[in-house]
Amino acid sequence: MDGNNIQNKKKLFSKINRKITLLFIIVGLIAPSIAIFYFYNITVDSMAEEMIEESATLLRTIAIMIIVLIAINAGVIGFFLSKSISKPIKSLYNATKEVEKGNFDVRIDIKTGDEIEQLGHAFNTTTSALGKMQEERNEIDNAKTEFLSITSHELRSPMTPMKAQLQMLEQGYFGKLKNKQKESLSIINRNADRLDNIIQDFLEISRIEAARLKFNFKETDMAQTVKETIKFMEGFAKEKNIKLVEKIDEIPIIQADPDRISQVLRNLINNAIKFSKEDSKIEINCELKDNHIQISVKDYGCGLTTENQLRIFEPFYQVENANRRRHGGTGLGLAICRGIVESQKGKIWVESKENMGSKFSFTLPLEPVRDIKPIKVLFSQKGIIERKIKEEFETELGPLGSIEFEELKNKNAINKDDIFDYINYLVDKFIIPADRGLIFKNKLDIIYGELK
Amino acid sequence: MPKTILVVDDEPDIRQSVKMILEKNGYMVITAESGDDCLVKLNDVKPDLILLDIMMPGTPVSEIVKKITDIKIAFMSVVRISDARKKGLCTQDNIVDFFQKPFNVTDLIDRVELILSD
Fold it and tell me: What pTM does this model have?
């Protein structure tokens, strides 16, 4: 399409030119042609027989000349008239193409003294407004980066003297401590560390949201990175006597950021260790797929309920196990992992069965993504899933469906198991036929499965 | 002859804490509150090690570092080492270590000892 248009730029006759010129010639010729034809016939009829032969040729020649002259005249006038329209339109087109490319400094100068000139002015005004918007956006972006780096500095600075003094107290720099004093210090220290971790995680999330996540891409031996990470985590696994089993494919050397990949992997292994029993094992796989690498961490721990599977990548969401003990951590780890993986256009997901274990997997591309887009981690997928389920209810049960869904939601019964129970109830009471119930359940299965 | 360490940080609490830790472990400590102040102090004394914060007011540390080539420097900052490397801060030969803030007291002492051990 573009090729044609560029060629048109060079041709003398653009489409508008041809149309209008042709129109002019045709219109210009109609009246004179009819007149000539009319007068020619009258003249011929009113002439004597002998004169006809000579005059006829002369008359015909004159007629043809007149027609040709009129045609040329009309053509020329039509051509210049159409040029006066098509030229400004072409320059408008070219300018718009520039704007398309992102160049907002382009301006048009049309001086035809008509509506097209007004169009030119309107174009200039709009473009300059767009240019200003772009400038503002750049300013805001810069302000964001500065804000983040200042905040990062300001937030973390107090932690340094605080932790230093606490450690000094603990180590007896200011005199020997009584037991109760040591205990108190221990609690303060622990929470100072916790606070520091939360601040760091928060800053990571801010960076992810603002697409300020920094990657250092370099030649990476993925297999080596994974092996080193596993080795690093072995110390923690030993505390619960857990075995880390690795299965790593042959992976070619690619451009990637090994620190980030290690960060994600460490987080997943850390979670796996937290939720595994003593003396169990954790399997770490690294596979080469067609156009990406897939790394997964599988544990044989307590597994996740459907509800938890849905929400586990949410910031601050933490799973509470049967003993209602919180496992520590900030609750931001998986949200950060998701941010890192999705910044590289990868996917991260979990497959799990309660009391059987969980398998967390993530993918990374063979080619790194250098143009990082902001990722929204601070809003949950839950809303989207709920909306889709509600739509499904309306489809299957009609307008009453959405009311039913809201009622279930109020009773806090919109996880998969409860909804399936509800559908079974509908089938039992013959409210919907059994085969429709099955279709309904299958469709919901897909929606819940979309978490992957 | 005790070794001398110059601690450069714009926060007085950090200067005080690090000074106390190092002095308790047998080092002589002088402090400076910015890159420019650091250069001034270097006119009077030549320390064995400079512990240098990165984000400070005044002349940027990247400029200050270029003027110090004959004394060992270890950065001490909230900035991450990977970011510092990216900014080209770690290229000089006399830059021997990087302490991430908040630091661990025992870790600080151990590594300082290692740096000054030869």
Answer: 0.53
